[in-house]
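Continuing from the previous page...

OK, I double-checked the sequence for Hydrolase against my notes and this is the correct one:
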Amino acid sequence: MAAAWATAVVLAVVSGGAAAPASATPEGDATQRYGQPPVWGSCQQIVADPGRIPTAQCGTVSVPVNYDQPDGAQAQLAVIRVPATGDRLGVLMVNPGGPGASAVDTVAGMGVALADTEIGRRFDLVGFDPRGVGHSTPQLRCRTDAEFDAYRREPMVDYSPAGVAHIEGLYRGLAQQCLNRMGADFLANVGTAAAARDMDVVRAALGENQLNYLGFSYGTELGAAYAERYPDRVRTMVLDGAVDPSLDPVDESVAQQAGFQRAFDTYAADCAKSAGCPLGTDPAQFVARYHQLVDPLVARPAFTSDPRGLSYQDALTGTGNALYSPRFWPYLTSGLLGLARGTDAGDLLTLADEYQRRDAAGHYQNRQDAFTAIRCVDAPYPTDPAVWVQADQRFRQAAPFLSYGQFTGFAPRDVCALWPVPATSAPRPATNPGPGKVVVVSTTGDPATPYEAGVALARQMGASLVTFQGKQHTVVFNGDACVDTAVVRFLVDGAVPPNGLQC
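Thanks. Re-ran it with the corrected sequence; updated structure tokens here:
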């Protein structure tokens, strides 16, 4: 089977397409009506340790929940601005991905990291949390902390007819919780199509004619949607860790799982260089050894100092989290050694908690609920069970380390196939907003947004492609001088890096 982690939890990529073309709706009315300047104030109540960015300003921008009903319910988008410290060129809007990750929190961190750089001197750094996400209100939250904990204890590996019915029952329960707590109208309007329109309202509220944009991971999908709808409002756009919006949900998931399998193989080969690697030293046995360690958790959680123990689902989530970057590999090795020795496997639980955004007090951020709700309206998911049986075969082939047991001829549908509101986007290629406006950065060993997706997105958008030889998810402003120099020159001077630049 394909694990629930791989199909329903990974934050880095979602299915969906770009927003409708600009001609579909009278955008001028929306931006004039809603693009009012924020009342800027302190970030004290929003950002952790605001003293590190004393110049930061925080506020909100109001948008209609449903643009077809402009006088109806409103959402308040949280916005942060870290003003340029030098010869200001404009704004650089950032989205960290997810969907569901907070751009406000990300920009707060970037404001510190980039304060003394040319980016910090030339641009106001701006982040807004899309509707339902992060510090925006209403906050999209489907589960209580206790309900989320209970969900994580479910292995969801029984693909007998009764087991499939049980898994789909869990998915239906999650969908119903979202519907009950958020309402159909809000759920139907949380997708990328609405977020792209919100992004333009924020642009207008900032008084900018054009945007500079840096999107990571899912943020590349939001950027591509914005560029299609508002091509004239893009000055420069950098898309790092690309999503290919032309892929349907199943194809996209297969490609992503293959990326995580490659990352697992790379990790295992590195682990095997050290004595006592819990996966052994024989590459032919890495996957089998991993299953020997984690599969018993289906029946019984492993020991950790946390009384929850380590569930099967958490073991896979923790593994996936570690595969995002080699700097997390030592924690994965430690957790697997705990399983092998029958001692504390707590590092895997810590990795899973970090991924799920559960703090030490047991409280969750809403990132995963937002992730699910957004991806479920970003593309129509097949509802025919037979499609998911075929998909299960493809998932097994793409990522053997994520598969449990043998193929049964039955498989649960994705939670999005059971979602209570329809999709608002559909897969299709991105469009070119104009020559010299977009640069795509893609990493050869990126597990979550495979390199090939970046190649495809660059081709679709007529963009220059920067290739980074690495093993991590996204790279811009993460310490690589080659990538960062090319990106800074593009953002500041509009100098497009040579297509095919290798870093």
